[in-house]
Write a structure and sequence with these properties.
It comes from Limulus polyphemus (Atlantic horseshoe crab). InterPro entries: Znf_TTF. By secondary structure, the protein is of the alpha+beta class. The chain contains six helices and six strands; from the N terminus they run ββββββαααααα. The strands form three sheets. A two-stranded antiparallel ribbon has the order 1-2.
Length: 180
Amino acid sequence: MGRIKCDVVYFPTNKAGRHFSVEYFKRKLLNGELIHRRWLMYSNSADAVYCSACKLFTLPTATSSGLAKEGIQDWKNISAKLSEHEQGKDHTDAMMNWIELYKILKKGKTINEIDGQLVKSDKCHWQMVIEHIFTITTYLAQHNMTFRGNWDKLFIPNNGNFLALVQLFVKFNPIMKEHS
């Protein structure tokens, strides 16, 4: 088995002397327009072509062509197999999912982005809680007041200056009320 040069890309030839060609990455429409098959990928190690959209989004139970699972190496019938695959329902559904994923990634609306916003919101919330507690602590220290009382629970009489001031903040501050 030799190697054939195609547009500076070498593809191995099979026993019948056939090989993959970069021309398969293009599809010629009836009006003569050439469109790029962005979904088609070639594996050097397997010497086979795959559909990246179907590989990612087709369910294992789907009855799609070999492009989704094991790949295709039938270079004699590759044009017909690619055309047949492009018109299949599984491929169309996978392409819709692929395009949707592309749009989501482009907008930055991934799960990571949403999680990042939640973490940022949480961080801001806890910074405010700490700021309130620090303000209470600073006030008590500046006035040389004791912190503790007879009890260490909120909303119990004689629970000390610190908890009494926390209770005061809870009355007027929704962030502190969340933690009472």
